[in-house]
Amino acid sequence: MIDSTARPAAAPREPTFPDFRFAPNIGGHADVYEIENLAFHRAGHVLAAMRGLAPWAGRTIVDLGCGTGYWLPVYAADAGHVVGIEPDPALRAAAARRVTPTLDVLAGSAEHIPLADSSADVVHARFAYFFPPGTEAGLTEVLRVLKPGGRLVVVDNDYRWGEFAELLAASAQNPPLQTAAATDRWWAQRGAIRQEVRSELRFASRADLASVLHIEFPAEVAAAWLDRHPAATGLSYGYVLFAATARG
Prior knowledge:
Elements (H helix, E strand, L loop, with lengths): L23 H4 L2 H14 L1 H9 L6 E5 L7 H5 L4 E6 L2 H8 L6 E5 L12 E7 L9 H10 E12 L5 H9 L4 H14 L3 E10 L3 H11 L2 H10 L5 E12 L3
Parallel strand pairs: 1-2, 1-4, 2-3, 4-5
Antiparallel strand pairs: 5-7, 6-7
């Protein structure tokens, strides 16, 4: 006999993370952000710099804030194990389609990494979370997960060089150079290595360039830049990398 008063089991709740802040550029336009990642990848300079700061061949690498997981297969090509961590459920679902026997995608955030102490060799964070001040808790959590001697490499924008920096300045609510100085100071106080990388974004078409500029910047700023550069299919781009080492 069926008990008509019995209730179905509740579906498991999606985990939430109080430090997560929705990013409208990728969260609202994941397909266009994929085009942007491909443009970063074509130039290749920042990937080489990341390898130089923290080689991951044969090691366990964590991509913190992995988004749709574009970079996960790139790391997995020679890493021993890759773990993507993403708090946004829609982006995480896209990243999960890239899972392989040596590549996992988990729900988590900078302040809530679902990994054991001293379990990772390298942690990467691209344009995610580590925009100080106020990120001490995330750094503490990353250092917990890293093995002694392991390294966190954070990829940030260079506000001082390149056409992308000019667009950032035209769009900024706070003075970009002041933001850059505060970020540099915060990392220096924590003993991080700072490395500048001058590169570019290379797009397959002008339409791809325009679509990316329109998700990254206010419409009037993007349109004005495109009008001033009618033949452009790319632009110069500067990165600043910060590398912090876990102590034993």
